[in-house]
Structures
1.
Amino acid sequence: MAQKILDALTKKFAAAIEQTTSDHGDEVAYVAREQLHEIATWLKTDPEMAFDSPVFVTAIDLLDLRRPDEHGRVVEIDVGVHPNLGRFEVCFQLRSQTHKHRIRLKVRVTEADPRCASLASLWPAFDWQERETFDMYGIRFDGHPDLRRIYLYEEFVGYPLRRDYPKEKRQPLVRRDDLLIAPDSLTIKTEREGDRDV
Amino acid sequence: MSELKQLVLGRKDVQDLDQEQALPNELMTVNMGPSHPAMHGTVRIVLTVDGERIVASDVHPGYLHRCFEKESESATYTQIFPYTDRLNYVSPMNNNVGYAMAVEKLLGITKEIPRRAEYVRVIVSEVSRITDHLTCVGASAMELGAFTPFLYFLKCREWLYILLEEVSGARLTHSYVRVGGVSKDLPEGWLDRLFARLDEIKVVIVEVEDMLNNNKIFRDRMADIGKFSKEDAIAYGLTGPIARACGVDYDVRKDYPYSIYPEVEFDVPLGTTGDCFDRYLVRIEEIKQSIRILHQCAKQLPDGPVIIDDPRVALPDKRGTYNTIESMIRHFKHIVDGIKVPCGEGYTFVEGGNGELGFFIVADATGRPYKCYCRSPSFVHLASAGKTMHGHLIADIVPIFGMINMIGGECDK
C-alpha cells in the first residue's frame, strides 16, 4: 500500500523526486530542495494522500556516516567528494490520519548553503520542530515565521548536534574561570590540574 | 472622608481620576517561570497580558536540556537505556520499550522476540501508563486546590512504583527492558500482588471521581478551558490523551499495532470538546482500560524465555556474568563495543504516557547509533500551548499546563 504513495509521487513530480527508498517499512522520498514546499502542499491537500498529521522534523549530518559501498564494504562516505550529496539531510516525517500511511520527505542541503523551505505554514507543529533543527544543526528554514534557538540560549556559538561539534565542549552563559575546557574555542584542553571535577 | 480619599488615591479625587487619566490600559509583559510553583518542570513563559487576559505568549523550553541525542551518539546501544529512563521519568518503561523496539527494527528481529517478553513488556508499559496518568490528574487537581486527590493518587502511584521496583530493582529509573527482551522475568507471585493493588486503585479512582467530577470549583476551572478543535489538534501534531480528548481517534496501539496489542481487547476513549475537563476524563478512562489490558495479559501470559536466544543481541543475565567467563566476555563486548546494528535508518513509535513516543535511529554498522532522535510528545504538545492559552486568564495557565502534562525531561531531552 505504501509503495503506491511513492509511485504516485514519482508520477506527479518526476523531475523533483531524486530517489525513493523503502527500508524497514519506512517510505522515504528524496525531493529537490526548490520544490519541497510545492510537493508538501500537494501531499497535504490531495485527497488520495491527505497527509494531515505532522510527526517530526530533524536533520542527519552525513559528515562521517559509514554506509556500504558498491562492493558491500562499510566505508565512510565523503560528502566533499560527491557533488550531489549535501552534508545534511533534512527529514520531514508525515502521517495521514485518514489513510494511516506514512512518508518521510528528505531534502539534501550543503554545508555552505544550509537552507530549505519551511513547512510550518502547512503544519503548525513544524514551527517548533524546525526551530529545534535550526538550533541543533543550523539548518535555515526559509519562510519560517520566527526562526530562533529553542533549547539553547541566544549567545550559544555553533550547532551542537553537528558531528564536528565536540561533545566535551562547554559554553557556560556565566563566565567561569575555573572551567578547564576553553569555552570560546573548539580546542579542548587535555591537561587537567589534579582531579578537579569539570 | 476627603482625608481618606487622599490616603487611598494619593492626591486625586475619584472624579479627577476619571477625567484626567483612566487606569493604565496598555499591554503588559509578565514573565512566568522558569521556576514557578504552579508549573510542572522548568519552563518559562513570557506573557503579554491585557489586564488578566493573555494576548500573546512565548514559551521557552530547554531549561532541562541534557543532550540526550548527543550523549547517545557516543554510547553503545545497551548504554542508552538509562538515558531513555530519564526522558519521561514518570513512565520510564514506555521509553525503554520504544527504544528497544527501534533497535530491534533495525536489527530485523522484531518477529523473533519471545512471546513472554512481549507480554511482560506490555504489562510493565501499562503499569507505567497508569502511573503517568495518576501523576498528571493528581498534580493538576492539587494545583487547583484539591489536595486530597493528589495525596490519594500519589499513594497509588507509590504502590505501583514499589511493584516496578520489585521487577527492575529501581523505583524510578528502571532500565528494565533490553534489546531482544527484558532483563529478568517477573518475580514469583508478582502478578497477584499487582492485581491486589489494582483492585485497591480502582476503589481510589472511584473516590477521586466522586470528589472531582461534580465538584463546582474543579469543573469551573477545567471545563471550556484550553479548548482545541479536532482539525487544529491534527495540524498541531497532538497525540495521546490530549488528541483523543479533542476527538481525534488516534492511538498507536490500535492504528499501528505493535507487540501483542492486537491480542488484547480495549477501548480508546474519545472526548468531544478538547477542553481540560475532557482531557481529565480521557485520562481517567485510560487508567481503567489499562487495568483491563493487564487482566487479559495476565490470563494469556505464556511461559518461556524473556530474552532472545542470540548472544550477539542479548545482554547476558547478571548471574551468568559473574559466574561464567563466556557471559562475562559477552557482557564486556556488549557494553564496550556494543551490538553491531547494520547500516540503515528507521523510525519506530509507541504509545507513551503522553502520546506518540518515537525513536528515529540511524545506524552505521558500529556499536553506537550514528543518530538517535527522540520524537517527544511533550515537546510537540507544548508547542500548542501558546495557541491554547490565547484569550484565557493567567490563572487558566495552571490547568492548561497541568493537562498538557509536560514532562521536563521528555520535552527538553
Note: Residues 166-198 of chain A form one domain.
2.
Amino acid sequence: MMVPVRCFTCGNVIGGEWEEFKERAREGDEDPEEVLDELGVERHCCRRMLVSHEDLVDVVAPYQ
Amino acid sequence: MADYDVTFIERDDTEARFLVRGVTPAFANGIRRAMIADVPTFSIDTVRFIENSSVMFDEQLALRLGLIPLTTPLGGEFDEDDTVTLALDVEGPETAYSGDLVSSDDMVQPAEEDVPIIDLKDGQRLELEADAVLGYGQDHAKHQGGVAVGYRHLQRVEVVGDRDEFRDDEPEIVRGVIETEGGELVPTEEFDNDLTERYPDSEVEVHDVENAFVFDVETDGSFDVDTLVQAGIDSIRGRAEELKEAVQL
Amino acid sequence: MSYKCSRCKRDVELDSYGGVRCPYCGHRVLLKERAPDVKEVDVE
C-alpha cells in the first residue's frame, strides 16, 4: 500500500524520502545504494524499508 | 556531585554524538532511558473521519497519522495530556502529505512536510480532524522523541609494538569512537572501522575506558538534539529531587 | 437500509419482501454505502 511513515525497527521517519528514492532509483537508473546515502538513510533497518517497498495503491484503486 | 565531563564529537539539529566521562554504566543507561521514555512529544491520538473514500481504512490512516512527528515546544508551554487540533482536507487526484495538516497552534506543526499519508485517485476525498496529545514514550512509541538512542564505551587504543612482518592481512574492526594515546578522539568511520587502516605497522591493544561513554542520539524532528538531551537530564534530576524530598523527614 | 447497485450505481432501498435485487436493473449485487456520520478512531 503506501510507504510506512517510520522505520519498523528504529522509528526513524523515512516516509518523506520515498518519492525521491522512487523517482531516482526505481524509475530512474541511479544506483539505489548511492541514492540512499545521499538521502541520509544510513542504517540498514531504514534502508530496507525503502528498498523492499512496493506501492500497491494503484493496484487496489479500481476495486473501490 | 561527581564531576562530569561532556565533549561533543558531532553535533547538528537532529543528530549528535558526545562523550561523557565520569558516569557509572547505570547512570549512562539512565540517561538513555530518560531520553527515550521520559521526554514528551505531541502525537495524534484521536482522529475524527468526516469523509474517507480512499483505498485505506480509517484505522490504517489513523495509525499513519499517529506516527507523523509534530514539533513540540518543551519550555513549559504545554502540560501532559494537553491537546492541539489538526485538520486535513484533500480531494483527489492528489496525494495527501503530512504538510497538508493544518494545525490550530503555530508551535505544534508537522515536523516533516513531505511524508505521504495516502494517494487519492479521482473522486476520492479525505477530510478529517485529529487531536494531538502531549504524551510520553513510555506509554506509546509514537511519543518517543529520541530515535536510535544508544551508547558504547569509549575505547582506548594503545600501540604495544611493531606488527609482525608476515602477519595475516586480517582487519581489526572497532566501532564507535576511539581515544588515541595522544588523547585525540577519533570516530571509527574515519578509518573505515578498521584499525589496520590507521595503524598499518603497529601491534595495538584496545581497552574500554572505564566510566566513559559515547552517546549516539537522534531525534525524530519534534525538537533538536540539545533540547532532547537537556529534557532527558532534567527529568532525571526532577525525579531525584522528588525522591530526596520524599525520604526527608 | 440504503444500498447502491453495483451495476447501475443507483441508490436502492431494500425491504423485507423484495429480496436482494435492484428494482431498476435487476442486478443482484448491492453495495452498502459508508454511513454519513463522523467516525472517531483511536490511534493505538
Note: The domain at 1-35 of chain C is CATH 2.20.28.30 (Rubrerythrin, domain 2).
